[in-house]
Every structure is written in C-alpha cells, then in structure tokens.
TrEMBL record:
Protein name: MoxR family ATPase
Amino acid composition bias (Low complexity), ranges on this chain: 13-25
Coiled coil ranges: none
Location of the region described as Disordered in the Swiss-Prot/TrEMBL record: 1-34
Family annotation (Pfam families): AAA_3, AAA_lid_2
AAA+ ATPase domain ranges (all copies): 71-212
Organism (species): Hymenobacter citatus
The organism's place on the tree of life at top rank: Bacteria
Length: 350
C-alpha cells in the first residue's frame, strides 16, 4: 500500500553542477539591478528534457508543477484514470535529488499509516517514534480522495505548518517539502469530497485532460516501437535540495509593484462579493497568487511580475477555493467560468 524511499546520499560535485547564485538584489534594490535567472532557466530546460524521455506533451502541466515547487506549494492533480497524473508526478520527483515517498490512499488507511506511530521498546522501557512515509521531501499521494475524513485530517497540520505533533513532540518535515496529490473526479465511484480546509492548503489545483490526437498518436507509436515500458531510471537528477533552496530565495526577491498587489487583492476580494459564489477565497489565496506569480515570472526568465502572470494563475489558484451557489450549478456554470468573469471585471493596472 505504501512505498517509502529512504533518504539517500545525493552529494553532488559543485564543479560539474554549479548551484544557483544566492547573491540576488533585495526588494528595495535600485531599479537598474537585475536578477540573473540563467541558472534557473538552464535547470528548467534540463528537467523538461529529462521528462521528455518518457512523457509526451503535458507542457503546461509541467510548467505549473515547476512553478509550484519554486513557490514552495503543494499541488492537487485531478483527472480521469489513465492520463499520466501519477507518472508525471513520479518522474518530476526523480529529477530532484531529494527523498521521495508514495502513498496509495484507500478507505481503510489510518492516520498512523501516514504520519507514523510510537512503538514500545522493551529494552529501554520507553516508546520510540517511527516516522511514516510523510517524512520525505516530495510526497506523492495517489488518489487522495479515496480516504475518509479521519485520514484526511492527518494532513492538515503537516501540509500547512510543515511539521507533525505526536505524543506531545513536534517533528519537522525535511526541506524542501512538497505534496503532489492526485484525485479522480468526485463523481466517480468510491471517492470522497475533500474538506474545504484541506483544499485551501493546496497552492494549485490542476485539471489534467486527455492528450491531443497528435500526442496520443505519438504515445501509440512509442509503445508500438517498444518504448512503452520505459523505466523511470532513464530520468536523471537535476536539482538538489540546496539548489531548490537557492532558487526559492531568488524567487522570493522578485519585483512586484504595489499596484499589482492591489490587483491581486481585488481579484480575490471579488470572489467574496460575487453573487454566483456561496464561498469566496481566503487571504491564503491572495498569498498563493502572489507567490505563484513570482515563481512563474522567474520560470519565464523575468525578474518582475506582470498582470498576465496573475491572470494566468488565477484559475489554478482559485478553482478549488470557491463554491458556487446551487442556482449557478444548476445553470451549468463552472468555477473556471466564474473566475474568468471576475478577472475580466477587474481593471488591469498599467
């Protein structure tokens, strides 16, 4: 049921894999000072090349996953079975030289199966905490909505506060710590709707659709040629934990104009006033939109955030944080359509 890969010695030779520079300008640096994202661009291109050995297409999905990692956020992937949600997450984890674990959520899974448990040691007459598979830098939770609420609640503390408390003792998560969760649409058999408090802890919710005709033909051609069983070992590691930490420091120092901060606040605030929404987004959504926009801008080679970054990320940040009124649901409206309406109503800063 669970697959746990223990931490390994992933020491890299700095002469062959240079780490990103930590010498980036502060937020109040002179306007002429620019942040160098050449290291980030090179690493991202290498990751895309490694994933392209196995994955066909999914370019937008990969960009959003990399954005989430740079923004230090968790990702929820939703789609029907068979569209490579789990495979993409596993391959992305293999490009990172950090501990990885995978959990398969089922209706009989208990919180201790996720967090760990205390075991009595007769030799010392005391209890020893045995960490569960959640203690990894990249945690893949497969079919997260097949576990009941009791198991889901075990993730609340660890996803938000990056630590868990067992028997009065707090155990921190390793750095970095990212949860990549997959789920089937809630209409499918044997699934549970995730609590709103848990959904709010995901930076993005990404909808994984079917491949295009050309992409599916390429998949069939590769499988027919004998590449259908390509092992995961062909994907090489690109980033270490130290690399990720350095890149995140660069991302946090991105330039964001005050008018863009107001723009983000207006978009999120409008979700609380929209007549078609029963539940609007919380301030955590504003922070997610800001952090995601910083990471996306860096991923695209810019050291400043634009309104286009905010607009591009708004659906992924907000779709799982809002609830439509019953009347709008009966009309067939979707969360993405409401978000599009809201973005179009807010004046774009110049």
């Amino acid at each position: 049921m669970q697959e746990f890969v223990p931490p390994a010695d992933n020491t890299q030779d700095d002469t062959t894999t240079p780490r990103p520079s930590d010498t980036t300008p502060s937020a109040d640096a002179p306007f002429g000072t620019r942040t160098d994202f050449s290291q980030l661009t090179t690493r991202v291109a290498a990751i895309r090349q490694e994933l392209g050995k196995v994955i066909v297409g999914q370019h937008d999905l990969l960009e959003m996953l990399l954005t989430a990692i740079l923004a230090d956020g968790h990702v929820l992937l939703e789609g029907v079975p068979g569209v490579a949600k789990t495979l993409t997450a596993k391959l992305l984890a293999r490009t990172l030289a950090v501990p990885f674990s995978r959990l398969q959520f089922t209706p009989d899974l208990m919180p201790s199966d996720v967090l760990g448990t205390s075991v009595f040691r007769p030799t010392t007459a005391d209890f020893e905490f045995r960490p569960g598979p959640i203690f990894a830098s990249v945690v893949l939770i497969d079919e997260i909505n097949r576990a009941p609420a009791k198991t889901q609640s075990a993730l609340f503390e660890v996803m938000e506060e990056r630590h868990t408390t067992q028997d009065g003792t707090t155990y921190p998560m390793p750095e970095p710590f990212v949860v990549l969760a997959t789920q089937n649409p809630v209409e499918q058999e044997g699934t549970y709707r995730l609590p709103e408090a848990q959904l709010d802890r995901f930076l993005f919710k990404l909808n994984v659709g079917y491949p295009t005709l050309e992409e599916e033909v390429a998949i069939l051609q590769g499988h027919h040629a004998g590449f259908g069983g390509t092992p995961l070992e062909v994907v090489n590691q690109v980033l270490s934990a130290e690399d990720i930490a350095a890149l995140r420091r660069q991302v946090r120092q991105q330039r964001v104009e005050p008018k863009l901060l107001e723009y983000i606040a207006r978009i999120v605030g409008q979700t609380r006033a929209h007549k078609g929404l029963y539940l609007g987004a919380s301030p955590r959504a504003s922070l997610a939109l800001l952090n995601g926009a910083k990471a996306l801008a860096a991923l695209r080679g810019r050291d400043f955030v634009t309104p286009d970054d905010v607009q591009f990320l708004a659906p992924a940040v907000l779709r799982h944080r809002i609830l439509l009124t019953p009347e709008r649901e009966m009309e067939g409206l979707t969360a993405d359509e409401i978000i599009k309406q809201i973005v179009q109503q807010i004046e774009v800063p110049r």
